[in-house]
Design goal:
The complex is a heterotrimer of chains A (147), B (323) and C (498).
Chain A (H helix, E strand, L loop, with lengths): L4 H22 L11 H23 L11 H21 L1 H16 L4 H22 L12
Helix pairs in contact in A: 1-2, 3-4, 4-5
Chain B lengths: L1 H24 L6 E5 L6 H17 L3 E5 L7 H8 L7 E6 H5 L1 H4 L10 E10 L1 E6 L7 H10 L5 E4 L5 H13 L4 E4 L5 H8 L5 E5 H9 L3 E6 L24 E8 L4 H16 L1 H9 L3 E5 L1 H22 L5
Helix pairs in contact in B: 2-10, 7-12
Chain C lengths: L2 H12 L2 H19 L5 H12 L4 H26 L8 H12 L3 H34 L4 H12 L2 H4 L4 H15 L2 E2 L6 E2 L13 H18 L4 H7 L8 H23 L6 H14 L12 H16 L1 H7 L5 H12 L8 H4 L1 H32 L4 H20 L2 H19 L4 H24 L6 H4 L1 H20 L2 H8 L1
Antiparallel strand pairs in C: 1-2
Helix pairs in contact in C: 1-18, 2-4, 2-18, 3-4, 3-16, 4-5, 4-6, 4-14, 4-16, 4-18, 5-6, 5-14, 6-12, 6-14, 6-15, 6-18, 7-21, 7-23, 9-21, 10-19, 10-20, 10-21, 12-13, 12-14, 13-14, 19-20
The chains are: A mainly alpha (147), B alpha/beta (323), C mainly alpha (498).
């Protein structure tokens, strides 16, 4: 248990409450004939009880030292990079987006040199294009390069 | 040396320019992509694979199959086709329930009629009421008798709510005035067939191509069918047995996004007609249980309008809940 | 035709130069596909399909089966090296395999995975050959009540999966169950928690969720720990399993193979659920259950054997009854149809050349895969020496490609990203992803079968208790839920901490 469990427990019990409300709205049905909300409602109920227990435990029980948070900026940038890839890939096409992703991670996040970053990015994007698109014929988006 | 390379570069540029100019006039100049909305191994996939060779020959290009599954019954794939550039390079093999069932039960992001250019209909598969070989019922009357005597006890599996099999079952129940418990299965026909073979349910309302090999193998017995089965002419149709309204089938059609240019349609229409009516393809398709029955663009559009209205009416009449 | 005669006939088909080449092409491509995370057997087989239309059906089938086999072998590689399941059935291999790699024991983990797969594959082919038709009809006795009870029993395993707080494990299970209900309700077509997004209508895909929770989150964690990532490459101990490793793994491999084979026969169970069960069983039987999840070799040996045995057993209902047990079998069934063969109860009799040819080539494929995979191990281990700054962009790229090519849909990639962040936060606050994944896999089948069983029984709950097999499952589940709860009373835990 860590101190944050107090807030996590609270958050999940609120979420569970929402799920239960949705469950009722979808229709619980009966035990003989469960409706679409049956499983969500009961799973939500269990989640709610457990979350409250976790929350209480966080207040009453012993808590360990929480994990340290290092490199928060880098983690955020890595996450944004993959989200960016997702949003751009259909528009820019696979090769270009893959190149940008790898180059960004190496140059901006890991602060490698320009030459190194671009060289690795070209190699990785090219190789994955050959393997996935040409050999395995995965249907990766071609994007603007196609037209 | 330098000059010659300059000249060749100019020739290349000219050729490229000329090439694109020609491409705009003559369709198709690159491979055509056909979207399969139900994933590999599905009926849509099998049908497209069988037709694609002749189709490619007619159009003088390669046919590429692309899977876009999901959205509940193929809605994502259909939506992808509807939103594609209307240049004739993105088409779809779409099944009837996308147009006639999905819009009735849930909202769909496209207009089932105006959202597409209808190209051709391949034909389809009958829906058949089947029981286990070991089951005591030899005819559809015997089965309905049993259902009448113990209302709600008889169970019938389908591939899921709002599928054509389910709607046919509801129509049969209404027409015959019996209570049969509908057991919806999902994830394709496998679980439903397994449950029927294992004797966990009494019957199934299923697509004929799904049943055909089990019937040939003597494990299942067809009691009645929506349309006549060529291989088993003795199996009565629902109409012959007096259940006139049980008439929904599953069919496949080929579609493009709305407003396909006339020159593209002029190529696609005849090419699909020839591929579908190719005797080799017909033989292959009929062997695995499909009925080939080509229909052109206008007829297909009329069919969808008619069937969509029919499903809307029947849902109201039989009292199936929609969302 | 009896089995021996059939096998000899099959071997005569398999040992032609052409068919050997087809097997080899299949297993080679399969290994590649298996090693690359995300691109699973289903995608690979469907991509290869068109190229087989003009070849002879038996050779084509042999190649596609080899490909499926190869992915099952290769799937463990990235699970062990990078905590990313190469395909869904290798999720469980991550638990201990990746920990072994972190301790410099990637070699033994990969070696045991390869040998376990070989053993399990061979056992399962023997079973398939001798028992296919008989077992297939027995498996049909499995009805909705049995499925539901088995799922419920499997769900109680979460208490064995976790090595942290049981409370938190149960919480994640409940969350997984809630997430598993996303999508079209199978009985009423009502939309649940879909918020106008089409991707969610078919529910959350297992693969994007797993790649997010395991693969992406692991990268985020490592990026956040400047020191830890160097440990990965510093000490690589032995390349192959030691004598002690073999001793520890012998029984788990045997048990995993048998469990996988029998569960694999039951249509619909697929290959993921058996691996969870096998892992839970090993932990239960182990003398040191507390070490599971920290890098014990049994935790790799059992599930890896199990998924290969299950993969082979999945062919039983497909070949003998024409019922696809999982999406891959559905594709193979479709392929047979396109070749003009008729998959169904008559397949074995009418196309005995196909049946025996495929069986014989499975033996061949197993040997080829072992020979192919063992020399690759030192190569894979070398991969860990690549600096992490260069490695992780590639890992992320593979995850992105894999989740996209599942359905060629960006929606799945977004799901993966979200679960990547979620998994990162979970690990930071010491919640484990495994119970969530198990619940997500089991949830839809559990709900479907619960509701189907009740529809069939006319609403009588007694159906779950009066059917003997179902009752046994419920009892086992009940006991396995109670035992650890009794053992892990909070008081005992506090005492341990003092």
């Amino acid at each position: 248990m860590v101190k944050a469990d107090r807030w996590i427990g609270l958050f999940f019990s609120l979420f569970a409450f929402y799920v239960c409300v949705e469950g009722v709205r979808l229709g619980l049905g009966t035990y003989q004939r469960p409706g679409p909300g049956f499983i969500p409602f009961y799973a939500g109920l269990i989640l709610g009880v457990l979350s409250l227990a976790v929350c209480l435990w966080g207040f009453l029980g012993q808590t360990d030292k929480p994990d340290r948070w290092q490199n928060r900026g880098q983690i955020a940038m890595v996450f944004l990079a993959i989200v960016g890839f997702t949003l751009l890939v259909e528009w820019l096409g696979f090769i270009l987006t893959a190149f940008l992703l790898v180059a960004f991670l190496l140059k901006v996040v890991e602060r490698r040199g320009w030459g190194f970053s671009v060289a690795v990015a070209v190699a990785v994007a090219g190789a994955s294009y050959v393997v996935f698109d040409l050999w395995l014929r995965a249907q990766l988006p071609a994007g603007i390069l196609a037209s | 040396m330098k000059r010659s390379s300059l000249v060749s570069a100019m020739i290349l540029t000219a050729a490229a320019f000329f090439g694109t100019a020609v491409a705009q006039e003559s369709y198709p100049s690159k491979p055509i992509k056909i979207v399969i909305p139900l994933g590999p191994g599905s009926g849509n996939d099998v049908v497209t694979r069988i037709l694609s060779e002749r189709l490619g020959k007619e159009l003088n290009t390669r046919i590429e199959v692309e899977y876009k599954a999901g959205g509940g019954g193929g809605v994502i794939g259909a939506d992808f086709v509807a939103n594609a550039k209307p240049d004739g390079y993105t088409l779809g093999t779409l099944n009837s329930s996308i147009f006639t069932n999905a819009p009735v039960f849930n909202t769909v992001p496209f207009d089932p009629i105006k959202g597409f250019t209808q190209i051709a209909r391949m034909g389809g598969g009958s829906i058949v009421l089947a029981v286990r070989d070991a089951a005591p019922w030899k005819t559809v009357e015997e089965f309905l008798d049993y259902a009448k005597k113990s209302p709600g006890k008889a169970t019938c599996g389908t591939t899921g709510v709002s599928t054509s099999g389910n709607l046919d079952l509801e129509l049969l129940k209404a027409d015959a005035g019996v209570e049969i418990t509908h057991v919806p299965y999902k994830a394709g026909s496998g679980p439903n067939i397994a449950a029927l073979l294992g004797g966990h349910i009494d019957c199934a309302m299923q697509l004929w191509p799904v049943l055909v090999n089990h019937v040939r193998g003597g494990k299942l017995r067809p009691l009645a069918t929506v349309s006549q089965l060529r291989e088993y002419p003795k199996v009565p149709t629902f109409e012959q047995k007096g259940f006139r309204s049980v008439d929904l089938e599953v069919w496949f059609g080929f579609f493009g996004p709305a407003n396909l240019p006339a020159n593209v349609m002029a190529k696609l229409g005849p090419a699909f007609e020839k591929a579908i009516n190719d005797p080799v393809n017909v033989a292959k398709l009929e062997k695995i249980g499909w009925t080939v029955q080509y229909e052109g663009s206008a007829a297909l559009r009329k069919r969808i309008e008619k069937e969509l209205a029919a499903v809307r009416a029947l849902v109201k009449r039989v009292g199936i809940k929609t969302n | 035709m009896d089995a021996l005669e059939g096998l000899l006939y099959g071997l005569s088909l398999a040992f032609t130069l052409k068919n050997l080449a087809f097997v080899f092409a299949g297993v080679l491509l399969g290994t590649l596909v298996g090693v690359l995370p995300g691109i699973g057997p289903a995608a690979a087989i469907s991509l290869l399909l068109p190229s087989t239309f003009h070849a002879d059906p038996i050779s084509s089938m042999i190649m596609l089966c080899g490909l499926y086999y190869g992915t099952m072998y290769g799937g463990s590689t990235t699970s062990i090296l990078a905590n990313i399941p190469g395909e869904a059935a290798s999720i469980v291999t991550c638990f201990d395999g990746y920990q072994m790699a972190r301790q410099g024991r990637a070699g033994p983990a990969l070696g045991i995975a390869a040998f376990g797969s070989f053993f399990a594959g061979t056992i399962a082919v023997v079973g398939l050959m001798l028992l296919a038709p008989t077992l297939a009809s027995v498996a049909l006795k499995f009805g909705s009540p049995e499925y539901f009870s088995l799922m419920l029993m499997s769900l109680t395993l979460v208490t064995y999966l976790s090595h942290g707080s049981v409370l938190k494990a149960l919480m994640m299970t409940a969350l997984g169950l809630i997430l598993s209900t996303i999508g079209l309700d199978p009985v009423t077509t009502k939309l649940r928690f879909t918020y106008e997004t089409l991707v969610l209508r078919d529910g959350l895909g297992i693969v994007p969720v797993v790649m997010g929770l395991f693969g992406v989150s692991e990268v985020l964690l490592n990026v956040g720990e400047t020191m830890n990532r160097e440990i990965l490459r510093s000490k690589i101990k032995n390349l192959f399993p030691s004598l002690k490793d073999w001793k520890d793994s012998a029984l788990p491999i045997t048990r995993g193979s048998l469990l996988g084979f029998f569960l694999g026969i039951i249509p619909g169970l697929g290959t993921i659920i058996p691996t969870f069960l096998s892992y839970g069983m090993e932990k239960r039987l182990s003398k040191h259950p507390e070490k599971f999840g920290t890098g014990v070799i049994e935790g790799v040996a059992a599930p890896e054997s199990c998924n290969n045995a299950a993969a082979t057993a999945n062919f039983v209902p497909m070949l003998s009854l024409g019922i696809p047990a999982n999406p891959i079998m559905a594709i193979l069934l479709g392929a047979l149809t396109i070749y003009g063969l008729q998959p169904g109860p008559l397949l074995i009799r009418e196309h005995s050349d196909l049946f025996w040819g495929v069986i014989a080539s499975m033996y061949v494929a197993n040997v080829m895969l072992l020979v192919l995979n063992l020399p690759l191990i030192p190569l894979w281990v070398q991969l860990l020496k690549v600096p992490y700054t260069v490695l992780y962009p590639m890992i992320l790229l593979f995850c992105l490609i894999g989740s996209y090519s599942l359905n060629n849909n960006v929606g799945d990639v977004i799901i993966m990203c979200i679960f990547g962040l979620f998994g990162f936060l979970m690990k930071k606050f010491r919640y484990e992803p495994a119970p969530l994944v198990l619940a997500l896999v089991l949830g839809p089948m559990m709900e479907d079968n619960l509701r189907q069983a009740l529809l069939i029984s006319g609403g009588s709950i007694a159906t779950f208790f009066t059917r003997p097999l179902s009752a046994v499952f419920l009892l086992v589940g009940f006991v396995s839920l109670l035992l650890p709860l009794l053992k892990l009373r909070p008081t005992a835990k506090f005492r341990a901490q003092e």
